Amino acid sequence: MTVDVEDFFHVSAFDSIIKPEDWDQYKPRVDANTRRLLDVFAKADVKSTFFVLGWVAELYPQLIKDIHAQGHEIASHGYAHRRAYQQTREELTADIIRSKTHLEDLIGEPVIGYRAPSFSIGYDNEWAFEVLAELKFKYSSSTYPVKHDLYGTPDWPRFAYQRPENIIEIPIPTLKLMGKQVPIGGGGYFRLYPYKMTRMLVNRYLNQEKQPYSFYFHPWEIDGEQPRLTNAPLKSRFRHYINLDKTEAKLERLLADFNWSTMKDVYGVA
């Protein structure tokens, strides 16, 4: 179980209308929404990996300490939610160092996991894995082997594997159906699919592939009262706002129907 800790105005779908210099114009909702998730997890007795955006950690240090104190894993989501392939090596390194250093100062232990915003490590920036290895990360979950307009490495491995850079990459899960790789890892697809369909797909993945299944989503996905950005592109609005009011109840069912833990424990990278 994984959570990408970012706010509604950070998402890549809104890049065309919201720039980082505009973030202070919006009232953050991530602290309250993440604490709601902590309550949901506590009720279900589930531990999760929280990939925390450095920007959020600097604004809400106590939130990060509380997540850690409740037994969840703290991992890095970078600092400013810039896609990895939009940065030079030097820029990406600085972004990750700023996040990792601050998170480690807050929790008092090494941060060993990283997830690139929008799964943005791919064909043109494999050097990013070298950066992660140099910064002493043990694993990454930064690739999605599907075709998508923002990301995708459809011919890369579908399961956790050791990279030549000496780091483990844990791709977002896909299921092979009728010759195609269907995205089943969470996020907007979880909100779009009926819950019974999600449960069927996850069960089929577990039975067919005999591999651990990992799920991701964001705190804003349980927040049906967040502001509506009416000037965003239609496709972006559809992706972002569909079924927000149903996500928390679906998540509770998902937590009850399967056994969950942190990435470092499930994949043995502690």
Short structural description:
The protein has helices at 30-44, 54-59, 61-69, 89-107, 127-134, 188-192, 195-209, 234-241, 247-257, 263-266; strands at 2-5, 49-52, 73-76, 113-114, 139-140, 161-162, 168-169, 174-177, 180-183, 216-217.
Describe the structure.
By secondary structure, the chain is an alpha/beta fold. It has helices at residues 30-44, 54-59, 61-69, 89-107, 127-134, 188-192, 195-209, 234-241, 247-257, 263-266, and strands spanning 2-5, 49-52, 73-76, 113-114, 139-140, 161-162, 168-169, 174-177, 180-183, 216-217. The strands form 3 sheets. The protein has a 4-stranded parallel beta sheet. It has a 4-stranded mixed beta sheet with strand order 4-5-7-6, with no helix packed on it. Strands 8-9 form a two-stranded antiparallel sheet. Strand 1 (2-5), helix 1 and strand 2 (49-52) form a beta-alpha-beta unit. Helix 4 (89-107) runs parallel beside helix 5. It is globular and about 40 Å long. The two termini are 16 Å apart.
Q: Any key phrases for this structure?
A:
270 residues; alpha/beta; 4-stranded parallel sheet; 4-stranded mixed sheet; 10 helices
Major beta sheet summary: 4 strands, parallel
Residues in β-strands, percent? 5-15%
Individual helix count: 10
Coarse structural class: alpha/beta
Q: Give the low-pLDDT segments.
A: none
Radius of gyration: 17 Å
The count of DSSP E runs of length 2 or more, i.e. the number of strands, is: 10
Order of helices and strands: EHEHHEHEHEEEEEHHEHHH
Biggest sheet: strand arrangement: 3-2-1-10
The global form is globular
Helix content: 25-40%
Q: Gap between N and C termini, in Å?
A: 16 Å
How would you state the average pLDDT, rounded?
95
